[in-house]
């Protein structure tokens, strides 16, 4: 058996600098548990297979030379490519999960071992499952200069560690390159709801793109913590007595991330592009006679008919949000993605800092000029108190929580429901609850184009069947995090109403069974789509399928991932109902509510519903001059929605965030916001 020869270069990481320390052609062993190693595997000739970052404690020991081949071949006896989850220690109490891939025919590994400054004292777990006896017997000695922190025996602890003699002097030398004060730039590490895939802030209504947008871009107006719209990029504005002419002037000193000034022409082009992608924006554009810049910092919006929600529209949080872009990018058709990511927000994006499937690093925008007012939700001064925001891709919630407890992760947007009680007892962690518009509301979306639920009478059976308390109990949520709510425009919003909710007040299987007998239902299958990768959607749909069966429906439950659910719902056949949830900030207004926003349109995402009585009410709501008038219109819309059972709510709940206790001044928001926060 050939011995795998390892060439290595040892470097020390200090802040953003890498200091070369030592090179050697002697055999080294990597066990996947120490510092960070970047490996390139050479499989022969000039063919090169890049390996992922792997954690690795290293030792220079002659008796490990023969064990090294056993290290690879015995650990991976079937000769196939493998992924082995390991922990690469970055600093004391901070670990990163990486992967090591072995490929058959490997003969040489070129390693660059990065020894992070501050990692001294981190040991190795010799009992890591999956490693060979040869590895556990003596080829794994941690590179360290402090006391051991692993679980090795006293005999193993007494073994010589050849590296420690030269590591300490070089670490002392490296300290000369530390920034003033002896601390590296502050970094906050976060795990969000999903990977950020679409960076164009107008292209998709995806929540994760909205979160990215608030970091990198800025808005003309923004909502404060009391739901009031406040100026953001705008310094001042005027409105004509008839409400048809609006003049806006931008704040001084606004710059794009490429250093060019923000102009009124940029904002006009951005609003036009956003209006082509947003249902709310399209309503404003439909009421617009002209939208033109007056000079470099001011522009005028002239309406051809009253539109009572101009400022609410410009300051909406509903996705896609009216984020501002440079004019040259805003001229990109809404059907195409912008070719470059340039914003004017408090964080900057660089393509070099974005590794798809792994992480994205956003850096503090040193040129950003925050407003003078205190930070207040999305409004006020966006003062960034960290140097960088490191967004990691960790799909598994349990893994993310373990990483947060170990100190690697600072913030997790969605804490798993089943771990909330344990997290609340953990003194290292804080759980951030949400209420009102920051809560989610779940709905069962029905297909009006085909199948049993094309009949409104059969759809109305759901009003008597759905028990919101059972769904919330299925999540394992206490009353602190969840509630039943029959209001279509959510409880706690200005448009909360009880109109049309009578059939929903006492749900039961018996009442639903009796209502079903009075319909023309003849046993046709009800296809329930269950997304197996979204906890709330999965549980809500499974509970509905069970209650449908008990009420007398013939249920066909089809399990798939969420992406497949979204694809299936665009078809007129092949599905009947599925559970979905959205934030209150998007659902509380008729003009932004995605459940009814595509009523009587050609869109394939609204369940193919068309209730003609709803159509004129949207325009009436937008033109209504007072809150009271809008509330009356919203109540009428709710009566129509429930009268036709377009959708049925299954509960209102918070999906709490979790963060380490070292974070302070974190803004309470279901949309993660990372200005104002400090890391102790």
Q: CATH class of the largest domain, anyone?
A: Alpha Beta
Q: What profile does the largest beta sheet have?
A: 7 strands, mixed
Helix coverage percent: 10-25%
Q: Tell me, briefly, the overall form.
A: globular
Beginning-to-end CA distance, first to last residue? 52 Å
Topology:
Elements: E1 5-14, E2 17-24, E3 35-44, E4 47-56, H1 67-75, E5 82-91, E6 94-102, E7 108-116, H2 133-139, H3 154-157, H4 164-174, E8 187-191, H5 207-216, E9 221-223, E10 229-231, E11 234-239, E12 245-250, H6 264-275, H7 279-286, E13 288-293, E14 298-303, H8 310-314, H9 327-330, E15 347-355, E16 359-364, E17 388-392, H10 397-406, E18 411-412, H11 420-425, E19 429-432, E20 440-446, H12 456-459, H13 461-465, H14 468-475, E21 482-483, H15 509-517, E22 525-531, H16 535-551, E23 554-560, H17 562-568, E24 577-583, H18 584-587, H19 615-623, H20 627-643, E25 647-653, E26 657-660, E27 663-664, E28 678-679
């Amino acid at each position: 058996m050939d011995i795998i020869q390892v060439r290595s270069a040892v470097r020390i990481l200090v802040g953003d600098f890498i200091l070369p320390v030592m090179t050697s052609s002697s055999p080294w062993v990597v066990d996947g548990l120490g510092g960070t190693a970047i490996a390139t595997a050479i499989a022969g000739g000039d063919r090169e297979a890049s390996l992922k970052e792997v954690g690795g404690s290293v030792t220079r020991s002659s008796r490990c030379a023969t064990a090294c081949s056993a290290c690879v071949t015995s650990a991976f006896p079937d000769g196939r490519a493998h992924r082995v989850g390991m922990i690469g220690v970055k600093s004391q109490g901070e670990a990163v999960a990486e992967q090591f891939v072995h490929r058959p025919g490997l003969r040489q590994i070129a390693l660059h071992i990065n020894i992070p400054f501050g990692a001294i004292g981190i040991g190795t777990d010799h009992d890591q499952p999956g490693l060979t006896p040869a590895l556990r017997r003596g080829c794994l000695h941690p590179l360290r200069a402090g006391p051991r922190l692993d679980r090795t025996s006293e005999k193993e602890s007494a073994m010589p560690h050849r590296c420690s003699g030269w590591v300490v002097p070089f670490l002392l030398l490296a300290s000369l390159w530390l920034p003033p004060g002896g601390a590296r730039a502050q970094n906050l590490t976060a795990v969000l709801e999903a990977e950020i895939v679409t960076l164009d802030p107008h292209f998709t209504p995806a929540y994760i793109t909205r979160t990215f947008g608030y970091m990198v871009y800025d808005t003309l107006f923004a909502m404060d913590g009391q739901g009031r719209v406040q100026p953001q990029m705008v310094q001042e504005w005027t409105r004509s007595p008839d409400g048809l002419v609006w003049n806006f002037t931008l704040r001084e000193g606004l710059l794009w991330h490429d250093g060019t000034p923000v102009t009124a022409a940029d904002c006009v082009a951005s609003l036009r592009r956003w209006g082509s992608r947003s249902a709310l924006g399209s309503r404003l554009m439909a009421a617009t006679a002209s939208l033109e810049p007056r000079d470099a910092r001011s522009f005028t919006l002239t309406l051809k008919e009253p539109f009572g929600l101009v400022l609410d529209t410009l300051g909406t949080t509903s996705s896609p949000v009216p984020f501002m872009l440079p004019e040259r990018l805003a001229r990109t058709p809404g059907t195409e993605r912008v070719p470059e990511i340039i914003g004017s927000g408090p964080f900057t994006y660089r393509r070099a800092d974005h590794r798809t499937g792994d992480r994205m690093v956003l850096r503090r925008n040193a040129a950003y000029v925050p407003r003078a007012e205190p930070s207040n939700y999305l409004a006020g001064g966006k003062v960034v108190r960290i140097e960088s925001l490191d967004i990691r891709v960790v799909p598994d919630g349990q893994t993310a929580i373990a990483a947060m407890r170990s100190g690697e992760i600072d913030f997790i947007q969605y804490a798993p429901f089943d771990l909330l009680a344990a997290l609340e007892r953990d003194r290292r962690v804080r759980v951030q609850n949400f209420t009102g518009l920051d809560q989610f509301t779940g709905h069962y979306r029905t297909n009006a184009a085909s199948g049993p639920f094309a009949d409104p009478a059969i759809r109305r059976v759901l009003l008597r069947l759905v028990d919101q308390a059972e769904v919330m109990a299925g999540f394992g949520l206490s009353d602190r995090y969840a509630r039943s709510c029959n209001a279509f425009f959510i409880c706690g919003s200005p448009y909360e109403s009880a109109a049309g909710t009578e059939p929903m007040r006492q749900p039961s299987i018996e009442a639903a069974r009796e209502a079903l007998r009075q319909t023309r239902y003849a046993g046709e299958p009800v296809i329930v789509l269950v997304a197996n990768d979204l906890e709330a959607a999965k549980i809500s749909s499974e509970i509905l399928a069970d209650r449908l069966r008990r009420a007398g429906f013939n249920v066909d439950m089809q399990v798939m991932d969420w992406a497949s659910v979204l694809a299936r719902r665009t078809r007129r056949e092949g599905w009947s109902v599925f559970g979905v949830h959205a934030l209150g900030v998007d659902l509380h207004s008729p003009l932004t509510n995605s459940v009814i926003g595509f009523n009587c349109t050609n869109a394939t995402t609204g369940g193919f519903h068309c209730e003609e009585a709803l159509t004129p009410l949207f325009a009436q709501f937008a033109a209504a001059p007072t809150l009271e008038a809008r509330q009356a219109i919203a109540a009428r819309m709710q009566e129509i929605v429930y009268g036709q059972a377009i959708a049925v709510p299954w509960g209102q709940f918070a999906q709490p965030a979790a963060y380490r206790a070292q974070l302070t001044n974190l803004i309470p928001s279901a949309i993660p916001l990372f200005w104002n926060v400090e890391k102790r």
